[in-house]
């Protein structure tokens, strides 16, 4: 059970790290998916057209940009309308879309075609198409009434388009989605299209609005087909103007633009949970993930690998005694007192033998004398010889020559090893 707690805590930290790295950066997943618009941003910038992506935390003015591109998102349906497999299918257009045409800024609206289920399944089948009723109803609410769409059958359509004179491109579309020419309002003009219908309309009222029927001409997947990438580049250059220098505004958030550039002055802001979420957005999510991983490794190394601290035991006391004895012996040898050291050794050894046979209370001179008396009952000659050798080392060891000291120590060792005191 001691090991289970650290393992559980480590697993929790790893889970939080994975959430920080992968879970909190999901907002950009759609932009990088086949249906997203990240590729358009990179492509335009590579061709010298500056692009600024919308940011819910930044305020922009319409005067800062030459063209606004709005890829219309599809709002998810409510849970009550989810299908049997539990996944929410595409529903109505987001409400902010109706405000996309109110700015005094040329705006290109890109209609949707595919449901979100296409990303889940990885297959662009007919069931993954957005129903016409959803798109047509929302177009009516966006002041594009009676403008209807049609789709061609399963397969690819190829057609040559010339947005700018002398620059033809052959576009390629799968299940092409076009406007029904019979429903185009009088205030709208067709700019590009194929035999089956119009692809791009220019609608002018109090402002200029362009509507693209098929998003595959500008999304990540479509830019890789045919000359779609070249067509998208020519189209953006034409809509923003040949002499335009201001950047293109790629609007994926729906945040309203100001009529004038924001003034740099002190303001009072309302804080919300979205502000806190910015601390965990990419790339800060990687930093938090690294911190959690380091903390987990430190916890594991301290609490699991080495285990809890060891309690003090009697063995530690014996180790300390041995170290003290070794230190004393070294000091005596360094000072030339080998005889004194030998005398102490003999005295302590006899005391240990007495305590071994008569108990801890016999570790003294009385216990040593008792041991010799008991030994004399068994072998008087050996007892007297051992006692005489021990007495000589204890009383005269510090004045013996080195040869006498070694000879007496050897005699003491042999006698002590040959004597058996027997059981108590």
Characterise this structure.
With 424 residues, the chain is of the alpha/beta class. It has helices at 4-23, 38-46, 117-121, 132-141, 228-240, 273-277, 284-305, 314-334, 338-358, 365-378, 380-396, 402-418, and strands spanning 51-53, 67-71, 74-76, 90-93, 107-110, 149-151, 156-161, 169-174, 177-179, 188-194, 197-204, 208-212, 248-250. The strands form four sheets. Strands 1-13-2-5-12-11-10 form a seven-stranded mixed beta sheet, with helices on one face. Strands 3-4 form a two-stranded antiparallel ribbon. A two-stranded antiparallel sheet has the order 6-9. α1 (4-23) runs antiparallel to α7 and α10 (365-378) packs antiparallel against α11. It starts with a helix and ends in a 6-residue tail after the last helix.
């Amino acid at each position: 059970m001691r090991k289970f707690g650290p393992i559980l805590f480590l697993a929790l930290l790893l889970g939080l790290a994975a959430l920080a790295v992968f879970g909190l950066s999901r907002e950009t997943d759609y932009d990088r998916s086949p249906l997203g618009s990240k590729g358009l941003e990179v492509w335009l910038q590579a061709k010298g057209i500056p692009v600024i992506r919308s940011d819910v935390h930044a305020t922009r003015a319409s005067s800062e940009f030459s063209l606004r591109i709005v890829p219309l998102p599809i709002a998810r349906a409510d849970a009550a309308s989810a299908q049997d497999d539990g996944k929410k299918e595409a529903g109505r257009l987001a409400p902010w879309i109706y405000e996309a045409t109110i700015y005094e800024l040329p705006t290109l609206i890109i209609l949707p075609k595919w449901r979100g289920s296409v990303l889940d399944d990885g297959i662009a089948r007919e069931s993954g198409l957005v129903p016409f009723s959803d798109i047509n109803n929302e177009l009516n609410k966006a002041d594009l009434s009676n403008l209807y769409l049609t789709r061609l059958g399963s397969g690819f359509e190829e057609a040559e388009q010339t947005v700018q004179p002398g620059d033809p491109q052959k576009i390629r579309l799968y299940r092409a989605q076009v406007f029904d020419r019979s429903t185009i309002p009088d205030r709208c003009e067709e700019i590009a299209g194929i035999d089956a219908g119009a692809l791009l309309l220019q609608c002018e009222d109090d402002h200029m609005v362009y509507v693209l029927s098929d998003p595959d001409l500008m999304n990540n997947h479509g830019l890789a087909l045919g000359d779609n990438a070249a067509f998208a580049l020519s189209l953006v250059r034409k809509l923003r103007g040949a002499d335009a220098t201001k950047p293109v505004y790629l609007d994926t958030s729906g945040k309203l633009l100001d009529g004038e550039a924001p003034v740099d002055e002190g303001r009072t802001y309302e804080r919300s949970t979205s502000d806190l979420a910015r601390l965990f957005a990419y790339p800060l999510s990687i930093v938090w993930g690294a911190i959690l991983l380091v903390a987990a490794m430190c916890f594991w190394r301290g609490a699991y690998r080495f285990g809890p601290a060891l309690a003090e035991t009697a063995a530690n006391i014996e180790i300390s005694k041995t170290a003290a004895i070794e230190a004393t012996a070294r000091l005596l040898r360094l000072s030339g007192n080998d005889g004194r050291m030998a005398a102490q050794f003999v005295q302590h050894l006899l005391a240990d033998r007495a305590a071994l046979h008569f108990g801890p209370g016999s570790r003294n001179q009385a216990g040593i004398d008792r041991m010799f008396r008991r030994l004399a009952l068994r072998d008087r000659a050996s007892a007297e010889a051992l006692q005489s050798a021990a007495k000589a080392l204890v009383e005269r060891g510090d004045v013996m020559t080195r040869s006498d000291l070694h000879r007496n120590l050897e005699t003491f060792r042999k006698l002590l090893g040959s004597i058996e005191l027997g059981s108590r």
